[in-house]
């Protein structure tokens, strides 16, 4: 007899694990299908730099035991300058963090099936009723959740996702020891998370050094495979070549060695979400996608995504007559926009403008960041129009004109709807449209 649960979740990452944790805590029968074997989990899915902030740690009760290093500042580097701001954070040991999520949800009754690769949804009479995994095995549930990331086998089969290749960001990271964390030619990165804007190292993206203690750090880079990358890229280079290129040239790594078995790579999509739900089905985490487009932060966004899905499922199933119709699961869409990524479209536009700028503009940006007060910088980071304008100069006009032309001519479908934005931003979008 095929087993039936309240919810079946495909994927035991930050989104799937948190969704299972919240549902199990509410007393629901939950099963999670995870592709990897239990004895190696998460060997191949250990893909996150895992930098996060106190708000995430507190909101989700993440314990200190899964933290590699607590940091106290964020440094942004350009090719010839840097900016530092006081910002407490934590660099997680991602594998330990994922195991903790599994254990936490198991305590409340969630079931995990490892070596269980979700292959397709089970659809009967137009309704999603379960998941087929490992080719022929089945599990049924009132609600199915796809938390598998960009692979998205369930969401794709249901036409609930449209991940675009030219919006795919790919990344690679090594864990190194023997780094000169406080090199005289660079900012002191002791207890810091550093992000570097430099097209020479990461065309159309950024690189990073996250200090994990002593002379060790997570070091990597990522970029979006779009026109900006193609303009700035080196012929014949793949992402591994860019990281080796940086390691060979940056004096901070002159005596550094790679830690054995500590190489991570992964991908996510930097684009606005489209359809995320249908009857008895919700797509969460990087299946949507969910990663912050500007700085790549994913743990907080994915966990919030999983929590929003759990809230939606609870609402659907806690009624006297459970209702998992598309109109009810669509509540997740509003929760996602309100609590997971409330300004995602504006931040997407900021991301495209940032990566359109050249290295010389990045150097100037560091000076801009230093001259502005913390309130204005916070406004800019949250996609507030006045905050963004404070970072612009008269001689950025050519950059802005090019940006406007590209948005209208090539990606006009991604421009925000005026109704989704504050009135001042809506006026700017209208102005861009008039440039046709």
Rg of Cα set: 22 Å
Mean pLDDT: 89
In CATH, what is the homologous superfamily of the largest domain? FAD/NAD(P)-binding domain
Task: State the end-to-end CA separation.
Answer: 61 Å
List how many beta strands DSSP finds.
16
Principal-axis shape: globular
Structural class based on helices, strands and sheet pairing: alpha/beta
- In the CATH hierarchy, the third-tier topology of the largest domain is known as FAD/NAD(P)-binding domain
Give me the number of helical elements: 15
- Poorly predicted spans: 411-425
Share of helical residues: 25-40%
- By CATH, the architecture of the largest domain is named 3-Layer(bba) Sandwich
Supply the number of structural domains.
Answer: 3
The CATH class name of the largest domain reads: Alpha Beta
How much strand? 25-35%
The biggest beta sheet is recorded as: 8 strands, mixed
Would you write up a description of this structure?
With 436 residues, the protein is α/β, with parallel strands linked by helices. It folds into three domains: 4-50 and 93-163 and 273-340, FAD/NAD(P)-binding domain (3-Layer(bba) Sandwich); 166-269, 2-Layer Sandwich (D-Amino Acid Oxidase, Chain A, domain 2), CATH 3.30.9; 344-433. Helices cover 35% and strands 26% of the residues. It is built from 15 helices and 16 strands. The protein has helices spanning 14-25, 54-60, 94-107, 153-157, 227-232, 239-249, 299-317, 326-329, 331-340, 344-356, 359-371, 374-381, 385-389, 397-409, 423-433, and strands spanning 4-10, 30-33, 51-52, 67-77, 82-92, 111-113, 118-124, 127-133, 137-146, 168-177, 192-196, 205-213, 216-224, 257-269, 277-278, 281-283. The strands form two sheets. Strands 1, 2, 6, 7, 8, 9, 15 and 16 form an eight-stranded mixed beta sheet that branches. Strands 3-5-4-11-12-13-10-14 form an eight-stranded mixed beta sheet. A hairpin with a 2-residue loop joins β7 and β8 (127-133). α1 (14-25) packs parallel to α3 (94-107), α1 runs parallel beside α7 (299-317) and α7 (299-317) runs antiparallel to α9. The longest helix has 19 residues, at 299-317. Residues 411-425 have low confidence and may be disordered. Its EC number is 1.3.7.11. It comes from Saliphagus infecundisoli.
